[in-house]
Amino acid sequence: MAAVQVAGSLPGEPAREVPREPPPAEQSSGFRCLSARLCALRPDDSSSARTEIHLLFDQLISENYSEGGGVAPEVIVDEQNLDFLLAYAISALQQCSSWTHMEILQALAALVYCNGSKCQKYLPDLLGKSGILMKLSDLAQPDPEVRRAAVHCMANLCLSVPGQPYLEEPYPNICFQAFLTTLQSPKSSDMDDITFCMLLQNALKGIQSLLNGGKMKLTQTEELGALLAVLKKSMFHGLPGLNIELPTVLYPTPLPQYDGRPPVKPQQSESSASGPTANKKKKSKVKSKKIQQGEEEEEESSGEREVARVPSSGREHMHEGNAPHSSPLGGQSLPVEGSAAGKDRVSPPFRSASWKRVSSSESDYSDAEGGMQSKMRSYQAKVRQGALACFLSTIKSIEKKVLYGYWSAFVPDTPELGSPQSVSLMTLTLKDPSPKTRACALQVLSAILEGSKQFLSVAEDTSDHRRAFTPFSVMIASSIRELHRCLLLALVAESSSQTLTQIIKCLANLVSNSPYNRLKLSLLTKVWNQIKPYIRHKDVNVRVSSLTLLGAIVSTHAPLPEVQLLLQQPCSSGLNNSNSATPHLSTPDWWKKAPSGPFLEEAAVSSPKGTSEPCWLIRLCISTVVLPKEDSCSGSDAGCAAGSTYEPSPMRLEALQVLAHLARGYFSMAQVYLMELGEVICKCMGEADPSIQLHGAKLLEELGTGLIQQYKPDSSIASDQRVPVSLVVMFWTMMLNGPLPRALQNSEHPTLQASACDALSSILPEAFSSLPSDRQILCITMLLGLNDSKNRLVKAATSRALGVYVLFPCLRQDVIFVADTANAILMSLQDKSLNVRAKAAWSLGNLTDTLIVNMETPDPSFQEEFSGLLLLKMLRSAIEASRDKDKVKSNAVRALGNLLHFLQPSHIEKPRFAEIIEESIQALISTVLIEAAMKVRWNACYAMGNVFKNPALPLGTAPWTSQAYNALTSVVTSCKNFKVRIRSATALSIPSKRKHYGSVDQYIQIWNALVTALQKSEDTTDFLEFKYCASLRTQICQALIHLLSLASASDLPCIRETLELNGDMVQSFILQFLKSGTEGEDTGAPHNLHERDQLVRTALEHISSIQALAGDTAKRAIMGFLEDILTIYCDLSGSQVALPGLTTDR
User: Which segments show compositional bias classed as Basic residues (predicted)?
Assistant: First the structure.
């Protein structure tokens, strides 16, 4: 079935119906009664039947099709009737007189609306070379209304419905070129301004429909440049006081685009013509106006009225009619979609095309409502909005790297001294009289800024550049500064709450993507100081977006010294605003009102030393979450539930997110409030709203992670600045005695369960061991129980948490816990979900790390008590997992290496282990060689090195020895990734005895491979690999020296041959290796110069101790080679070297 628009309604607009007041019952059923009577008629040739049909048609035509008339906005037509009607309309256009074309085109537009895929067989007649629509939309068409209607029909043809086929080639491209030509053409002398505006709207709608349908791929630079040029021109169509000339094509360039606008005289500005007094008079006179196609009126900042979309759900209807003007806030604003508790606090200015078709005979304005000038401005504003909507679709249709080539055409740059500011999206944001257009421009700018972090990361202006040219990095930095300046200007000047929300969201996007660590200070300070008053704005959406912006500031490149200082500002700084609601922080001592928990007094005694100045942002967020509002919900607080005493849900959620950002980036500030935040978390997790509970659990996880970071061995935080372990124990005791266990058991909300598991895994190990035993058992029991969950999200989180717990010092020697955890992880490794298997593989790797740590303890009881049968199961599961996806494989091979390292002689002697050992090593060898992700191959080489550490394995004599060494030597000489080469060279230097390297041939193959790898250590086509060259050479030199320190007499002749060919090269690199410690290179080798020097001396001593074969000069040659290295090194370092007794055999 096909849905078509009623010809009497406004075609080209998504059909929708949003009546302001319910129509009378008799009117609402009028159309349906007439249509039902028409459908009930039976074929009859009698005169009475014909009269009845005529009367019915007459009544249908006379029916009130306005908004309040209750007329159904669309008629469902089956494909057979659609086919008949299309053929009839096309035939009528071809045969009837030109004066009928306008009405026929209206009917045709209604027929093809969203039915383009069903009109395929008529496309040659409509869009072919001699197609009727191509002729009627041509520039040579004498009737401008007919031309506009023809373009409108083409736009409706391009409008696609998701799930239905699109127009077949080449028709999308034909339509695109027709629309582009229409937009590029100037207004003809016989076309009035309003018709021209509607023509541009239809062309823009058509292009947007093509782009949204995904059929158009703007891959040609000329094509994209031409589209962007007309969009930029249309974006400023009719903007008061602005007249720009643009080239027909914009080309990608980092330089400012050509701007040919003439100077503007102040008296020509239309926006300045009407003052506040005139505006008030206009407002008092305006009582109502017609709204078209589901759009409601919106008050302009200049006193004009603009059209805004009203969101609706389900099928959208089209109508006309009157709607009373009302505003609960004293001023009309964009509609809030749903409630503030929804995902999006304010409806975007345009979500899908908001288009209208109004003939010149249809007047929406009377002289009393502003006259022709206001009407004209409204239509021009709709063109600008249409261009911005089309631009937004264009941004989504092209790659970001292509879009950023046009950055300077749409984003402002700091103007040179004496030159005017170039026109950009910020021009519209600052100067457009329509709040909706300003909001649209901001939405487009946000789309450009979203994901721009990599592009903007090149910006740099920390030093003054005095050069003959401006570097690209400085130009981007200048653009970032100008964006900050303009958006802050717009923030101060904006009066519309909805547009204000868009400005703040745009600022948040800019802050999230700007590299402040490479920019001069003060940018964030200006944003910070100007946004603080809006935290108390009367509109909840503005308050929420203000918190979002503050969250972006504290999360970007954290920790920043500038933000650290801002957080320590006094709380009263900049928080006064005349436009604010009743403040909910009436006194600086707000925390005294908060319910004090049983732990707060103890916490005050054991708090770490920190700043005495409280963090006002943390105080603000805590009060937003836990304290009741001091004023009743205003009309703008759409998210405030009836009877709720707290801030609207979006405010509380955003405040919790800001707290989480602070805990992640500025933990030193958050730790002062640790116990208060614990109270907040308990309160949140005890509420009924799952989203509040979830954000409480996320905050708990961030706080736990911050505590763990403080106690890491490499932490730079002084011990007296850390949170005492006793306080951490109190904190976690409060959590475990509170609602956290309930959240873990809340199977109705698996996302909350998973977050609670993540939070539980962030407990500090030192604190866990000090928890009461019943709390420890509670944690372990709940995690092991949740591992059986049928929800994959919960199971993945549980597997990860068990992998964390198994590393705890107080648990890792508990054989029963390790065995239980192993069984749980092995079960998860069989799950159908890749995410669960990946987490389980990571945990299995951690568990096997624990086995290795337990091996190194003096007490052998753990190895003796650990089940051999469980070891076999773990090996089999790890082998199976090593054949899985890369996410699983990387940790599976890590586990295999650890397990083979852990095997005791008592295991290896058993026949049932022989086959599994062989299979495990073959799995590692194949993983080393396969073309998998580099992380997988790196882990496989690391695992192979772990295998070589087990002296009980028959390395050197087993058949797999040569295969393992061949795999590693292949990687060290040819792998594209240098980090993998480094790891394979490390593995080759691990065996501690000469017999482990196998035969002489095997030994020499390894030696030659390392020399070759040293020679090729700079051969790479990937620039990113060059930074690892020094580390690779260092590791290879270490491996070569290690091999020399183990060499036997039969190995020496072959070593000498290699040195005769490549001795100079090897010597120069070993000398670099000896010196590299003084150059500060992080090569992974010993940094102590004495250690490096001692490696060579040990090798020399070993060679000198070998009983050389009679007549063999290889020993003396190799000793001479090593002595030369030590002599040269000592000469270079200015120290004396003594080689007593080492040359006696020479």
Answer: 279-290
